[in-house]
Amino acid sequence: MTAVKKCPCKSGKLFSNCCEQYLILNTEDDMDYANTLLVEWIKKYAPPIKSEFSKKMKSYVFRISYFLEVLIARYLYFDYEANSKSDKSINETILSIKHNTLLTIFGGFSCFEQGLFMQSGILFRSVIENCMVIIDLCEHGTQRDKFLKDKYSVNGLVGRVKYLIPDFMIDWYGYFSRNFTHFGPLHSVSIIPAKCWPDNWLLVTGIQNIVRSCCAFGLTIERIHFDVIRNHFFWERKEGDTSMKLIEDGPVWDWLEDIRKDILNQYPPNERKEGIIYSDKSIKLK
Ligand SMILES: [Zn+2]
After folding, report:
1. How far apart are CA 115 and CA 106, in angstroms?
2. Cα–Cα distance between 154 and 236 in angstroms, integer?
3. Which of 49, 160, 168, 219 could form a disulfide with 115 if both were Cys (CB 3.0 to 4.6 A apart)?
4. Bridge-partner residues for 6, per DSSP?
């Protein structure tokens, strides 16, 4: 290792007083330790991928962000309606899970805009799981009790909540699990983040993944705060009825369909540009 005065981490300190002692692994090669891949990724490669993404996708991102904002403004800060004393102590928990879920949507989006497609899906799967946990805790007193005793488990979660959420949400959970979180068709394919975003399929699928996460989040937080708001987007309850029914032809579904049609039209997923190598495997999800 060549002696340098200033530390390459750019702290302004001397190398010997800063990071030198932490570079403990010896390498045979002439490694350029001032330009390592993670730092290069953060500083050099990711920003142009993000900026190109923004150019291509800004109107979709704008619409999604607006949609999310309406949901946040309506439902994020409501307390969970406590029925008993013990339920009151779970208020803060529900609020924290809601916050974390929103931040996980941001995390999934941040990964995706940097071209980290598969990694974004892992986070979106986590969004759907959090949503199911919120519903499980809000609708099942026994699960709340277990939670308060530190005995709560997500084992059997899908079975517990599936009568309370639409089938498509379970399908999305399966889709994110099979393809992104667990070893699936994407894990053995090289999807290299590319500044030019040559593969429309990635753009379209990634945006759909974000939309699905936002919808799942929206219908979850509306469901648990149904009674404190009028003009529902996702759920309805007929007078005298105790259970809720999904509004199947509401404006949300039109919005979703419009985004889908627009993006498919603007970025046909099967389009192949000359000079670019595409992986057919990547478009065969389970
Ligand atoms: Zn340093």
Report:
1. 14
2. 28
3. 49
4. 14
